Amino acid sequence: MAYIRKRNRRIFLIFLLPAMLVLFLTTIYPMIYAGYLSFRSYDLAKLFVPRVFVGWSNYAEVIGSSEFIHSLITTFKLMAMTLSVQLVLGVGIALIVTQKLPGMPLARTLLMIPMMISPVIVGLVWLFLYFPELGYLNYFLSFLGIESIPWITSTNWALWAIAIADIWQWTPFVMMGTAAALQSLSPEPYEAAMIDGNSRWDVFTRVTLPQLKPVLVSLMFLRAIDAFKIYDIIFVLTKGGPGDSTEVLSMFIYRQSFTFWRMGVGAAASFVSLVIIVVLITLFFKSLQREQHA
Amino acid sequence: MKHLKTTALCGSLLAAISGSAFAQGQFDGVELKMLAIGDTSVTRLAPIVDEFEALTGASVQIDMFPYPGLIDKIVIEASSNDPSYQLMWVDSPWVGVLGESGALLDLTDLVLRDAEEIHLDDIIPIQLQENTWQGRLLAFPASGMIWHQNYRKDLYENAEEAAAFEAQYGYPLAPAQTWDHYIDIAEFFTRSAGETLAGEVLEKDFYGNAQAYSRVAGAITHDFFPIMRSYGGQYWDPATGLCAMDGPEAVAAAEVMKRLIPSNPPDYLGLMWDIRTGYMERGEVAQSSYWSVRTVRLTNPDEAVLPTIGEAGYAASPTGDGNPQPTMTGALSFGINSKASEIEQQAAWEFIKWGTSRDMMRRFAEEGSGVSQFHVSILSDPELQARYPYYQVLLDAQENAQRRIFHPFYADVEEVFGVELNKYMAGETDSAQEALTSACTKINTRLAVFPEDLRLRWINDEPAAIFQ
């Protein structure tokens, strides 16, 4: 018996080995190496710069940098803009597409297309729409007698332009999750509420929303993590500009690593970013646990 | 491989005997790859590289990329011990970082050896100096550049417009000699749709000027630095080797750019080099100052609208007080990867000689495409001057010229100043002084860790050994 258990364990390990190897090579080793880099002065472009151990100074530089703080604030600002709209729109659309009406299954499928497109392509599509002189959006606005909007070339508009593209792409995700949750809700509470003579709004706010809350919290949390890491769309549309109006955390890390080639500082900024995400995740699970206990 | 090396060695010997001229099939089987930009310095040459293969046996593949991000690819390539690219396109400000890292082969001896064949005496000296690092020639010019002003000559010569301008500003309308004049002209020609320009009612807005204000790839700095230099500003403090680009000349230059904003297209904060030149090429602005690398397009109706609706004029860059200042030059060049094999380096040098030769440059000019030329004999050719009126401007300006920034930290300077200047232009920073001081502080923080003697060596423009 013990021999079989031992043999089985060996077989398990053999089966696990490829996955563990891939995980080690693509995630664990790069992370360890990034950790190593974050304590060193490492300039990839300037081979003449000494590559030496610098202790915590890369971390101190990142945390003490006004650009880092600005990028963090911009990241949270963008998160707030996108998540709030995605939540309202996603739930609204889910309520419509879960109605037993003709064409709704097709509508659900079509609405999911944006989230299946690569963010770089989404960025390029919106670049064509926003382009100052030749963009379709301004072309259509001109028919309405509205003056051209400098979507991606104005510090007032650029962050909104990014948010709109992100909302377009990821509202379907919220819609899909909410629709799935709506379809799995038990009909009894609704029937009871209708018999009690509640209005549709009351039913939505007092019956539907409370039941959806755990799902919505999960969806928002997943979206928050994604929004925190947003990079592709910004890289294509504005590269962090104009000024530093769309310089989010990932752009800050990118610039340190691949514009200034200061891999040590870039790695340190990545770890600071990781810590922030871990704190967010911890807070989320704690809030979920509180929900469950309640 | 052994066969290749033997063939190449024989070829090299043959070439040496025949005074380094091409030996037919000298590099049979050698494959060269070039990491390059998709601009005139390369696009004219790329379609005809088969001719080089027919001559020497070496095949050349040119991979063209946009300017933003190209230096990143070159840096990665330079840090590889097993390079994929033997030839590299080099913008002259990159010479510092590539030179200090030992990424490029020193061409000094090759140039001296083949001086007669490459007509070394006919090349404008500053174009060679642009490619030197600590006296070593690390790349060879494929397109020479100066920063100059382009303007709508047809509008300037319009009697009605000229009279209106003089009445409004009190002096005649002519290519600007000072930045104040330049701003006046920009302001004068900025018109809305429905207004009249040279007797015709405008269907769309017309702008007085187009400059690059985008922060992407530091585009704004490519206009800011020439303006700063035209005020006599310096990049570095000669006593410390630290950033000096926040002095009064730099502030004046940033303020000039700010004052020009109302005369620029509304998307000015996103104007990259090519978008900015596009406005001039379509004839939608009265004037625009930029690097001569794209000036040739203004003469070619296949590449620009302007020659079909008006005429472009060319003049030297304005200066702060109207008195001459050294013109900013630049060079777009070809270099050889120092880690390429010996045979590849030999073939690469033959390719550079072929692709940048005086005959090739003349051929481009005669075919109507052309690059920004750098041979005195071509620029002073009366027939070519008649066809390309800006040749004389190029020639004159380079008599008293200064090279561009060439510091190993150029990429940092371009990015940091790009962002800070863009913030100032966007109104995020209150004053030019604040923006420039912030940029200089960031650069100095990075430079301060290096000893002063090293910093001073980095800013020392040692004359190329080929001139000694």
Helix proportion range of chain A: over 70%
Radius of gyration of chain A (CA) equals 24 Å
Number of domains of chain A: 2
The overall pLDDT average of chain B reads 91
Q: Termini of chain B, distance in Å?
A: 39 Å
- What would you call the shape of chain A? globular
User: How many strand segments of chain A?
Assistant: 0
Helices, strands, pairings?
The complex is a heterodimer of chains A (294) and B (468).
Chain A: H1 2-37, H2 57-64, H3 66-97, H4 104-111, H5 113-116, H6 119-130, H7 136-143, H8 158-183, H9 188-195, H10 200-228, H11 232-237, H12 249-259, H13 263-293
Chain B: H1 2-17, E1 31-37, H2 40-43, H3 49-56, E2 59-65, H4 70-78, E3 87-91, H5 95-100, H6 108-113, H7 125-129, E4 132-133, E5 136-137, E6 139-152, H8 153-156, H9 159-169, H10 179-189, E7 196-197, E8 200-201, E9 207-209, H11 219-230, H12 248-260, H13 273-281, E10 285-291, H14 306-309, E11 312-316, E12 327-336, H15 342-355, H16 358-367, H17 376-379, H18 382-387, H19 390-397, E13 401-402, H20 410-425, H21 432-447, H22 452-459
What features would you describe in this structure?
The complex is a heterodimer of chains A (294) and B (468). Chain A has 294 residues and is mostly helical. Chain A has two domains: 37 residues, no CATH class; 256 residues, MetI-like (MetI-like fold, Orthogonal Bundle), CATH 1.10.3720. Chain A contains 13 helices and no strands. In chain A, α2 packs across α13. The radius of gyration of chain A is 24 Å and the shape is globular. The two termini of chain A are 46 Å apart. The mean pLDDT of chain A is 90. Helices cover 43% and strands 15% of the residues of chain B. Chain B has 22 helices and 13 strands. In chain B, the strands form three sheets. In chain B, strands 1, 2, 3, 6, 9, 10, 11, 12 and 13 form a nine-stranded mixed sheet that branches. In chain B, strands 4-5 form a two-stranded antiparallel sheet. A two-stranded antiparallel ribbon of chain B has the order 7-8. With 468 residues, chain B is an alpha/beta fold. Chain B has two domains: 217 residues, D-Maltodextrin-Binding Protein, domain 2; 182 residues, D-Maltodextrin-Binding Protein, domain 2 (3-Layer(aba) Sandwich). At the A-B interface, α12 of A face α4 and α20 of B.
